[in-house]
From TrEMBL:
Full protein name: Alpha/beta hydrolase fold-3 domain-containing protein
Organism: Psophocarpus tetragonolobus
InterPro entries hit by this protein: AB_hydrolase_3 (IPR013094), AB_hydrolase_fold (IPR029058), Carboxylest/Gibb_receptor (IPR050466)
Family: Belongs to the 'GDXG' lipolytic enzyme family.
SUPFAM superfamilies per UniProt: alpha/beta-Hydrolases
Residues covered by the Alpha/beta hydrolase fold-3 domain: 101-322
UniProt GO molecular function: hydrolase activity
């Protein structure tokens, strides 16, 4: 395999494409070049590398462990979801239902899709290993649709599930619903969770039991020690994360905004309600990820607010490890299984 090809393949398996990071670490790195994107004068992005995609596998006659299919959520916004159903569920008695996991993919709010192989494979494993119904949302990306667009879509899908007559969703137990996301998707799961806490009656019979935040993407204007220590990280160095915030936050706000910095102004007031509702919030992180200190700060805030927080931090590794490395994905599956019981 040529070096160039190897780099491309490796980069595709990461959350962002860091083809130039190691060589450009000392010179000023151009994040546009590293991400292989062009910002057009009209504010849209030309994405020159699209991560590989996988089609769904809806045919129950095929010997697959997990069926999947794509369904439209809101045609006017072109949002849709990929639903994953463990094959075995078709053989269960109708009253035996599986937990429901609503999943939000990562990619710095600007990349990736629910169809991306990277996240598709993770959702298949998640559905199989935890025997859950998974709904993976295709939300709108920035900068074409800046935040809060992705948050609106993420809440809207909960209402959509509630009102849907989809036969696969009949296998889901709406009273055991978890919101899960990785990286930017972890940020989305958190903010969607805050918004859902204000609408618990409107989304019934859907009942959220936990938010599962896998290396959630947060930021702030003041650098944390881990951001400084890992400023030239090969997966998500500061120029890349700074650009992602620039492209996704509402125009005119800085990184100390409530969407990017969850600890600002003492944290969201609705956390008091999340405490009373008894939702658990699981946070996954690792020391090799520049984001780890922000994740730790979030855990501290949640503790302080009396929210039932489950902390899962590991030594070493890098950003993206819980989706990118199947042996680490098991940690997430095991956590989900403890929530089921
Ligand atoms: C924005 O500009 C790009 C590149 O010139 C073009 O391909 C795209 O169609 C334009 N989009 C809109 C909404 O004008
Ligand atoms: C779909 O999106 C449109 C545009 O934002 C919105 O007005 C409408 O309420 C949405 N439909 C549903 C069913 O949520
Ligand atoms: C599917 O899940 C079962 C547990 O439910 C596990 O034993 C098995 O290894 C999984 N298979 C794959 C291919 O992940
Ligand atoms: C982000 O925006 C700020 C303010 O507009 C600017 O100073 C900075 O250079 C931008 N950073 C990146 C990486 O685009």
């Amino acid at each position: 395999m040529s070096v160039e090809r190897e780099r491309v393949v490796t980069a595709f398996s990461l959350c962002v494409y860091l083809m130039y990071a190691s060589t450009a670490a000392n010179s000023a790195m151009d994040p546009y070049k590293a991400l292989n994107i062009i910002l057009n004068p009209n504010g849209t992005l030309t994405r020159l590398s699209i991560p590989p995609q996988s089609p769904p596998s809806p045919d129950p006659s095929l010997p697959t462990l997990v069926l999947s299919k794509d369904v439209s959520v809101n045609k006017s916004k072109q949002t849709w979801a990929r639903i994953y159903l463990p094959r075995k569920a078709l053989d269960y008695p109708p009253n035996s239902k599986l937990p429901l996991i609503v999943f939000y993919h990562g990619g710095g709010f600007i990349f990736y899709s629910a169809a991306s192989t990277y996240f598709h494979d993770f959702c298949v494993s998640l559905a199989n290993n935890t025997q859950s119904v998974v709904v993976s949302l295709e939300y709108r990306l920035a900068p074409e649709h800046r935040l809060p667009a992705a948050y609106q879509d993420s809440l809207e899908v909960l209402h959509w599930i509630k009102n849907s007559n989809d036969p696969w969703l009949r296998h889901a137990d709406y009273s055991r619903c978890y919101l899960m996301g990785e990286s930017a998707g972890g940020n989305i799961a958190y903010i969607a969770g805050l918004r859902a806490a204000a609408e618990v009656n409107q989304i019934k019979p859907l009942q959220i039991k936990a938010l599962i935040l896998i290396q959630p993407f947060f930021g702030g204007t003041k650098r944390t020690p881990s951001e400084i220590r890992l400023a030239e990280d090969h997966t998500i160095p500061l120029p890349i994360t700074d650009l992602m915030w620039n492209l996704s936050l509402p125009v005119g706000v800085d990184r100390d905004y409530k969407y990017s910095n969850p600890t600002i102004k003492g944290g969201a007031k609705i956390l008091n309600r999340i405490k009373l509702l008894g939702w658990r919030v699981a946070v996954f992180g690792c020391e090799g990820d520049p984001l780890v200190d922000r994740e730790r700060d979030l855990v501290k805030l949640l503790h302080y607010k009396g929210v039932h927080v489950v902390r899962q931090f590991y030594q070493g590794f890098r950003h993206g490890i819980f989706v990118g490395d199947p042996t680490m994905s098991i940690k997430v599956f095991n956590l989900v299984k403890t929530l089921h019981s």
